[in-house]
Task: structure prediction
Amino acid sequence: MKTFRIADVEKLIGVRAHVLRYWEKQAPVLGPAKDDYGRREYSMRDVELLLRLKYLIQERHYTIEGASEALLSEMVSGTQDSVAKLNEIRDELLGLFAIARERSEGDGKP
Result:
């Protein structure tokens, strides 16, 4: 999995490293991993969250607290949508399993 150092993220999203560290303290949804030496390792997901946070703060004029809450709300909403989709798929698979079972019992096969 590709990871980025803070200097890379600084260049990618156009926000200084000290601002990135401040955002991490203020927004609990952010939390890059750290290597054995304590250096931050940002995943692509971390970069995406930082880009969204930057947009909310700079373009939509949210406070850091408001942007953090909005991010968290978006993440929860996305999770709920995913759970609903997974439940639909599960129900469909159970239906297909029942059909396959009926057919195999009709053939005399276990």
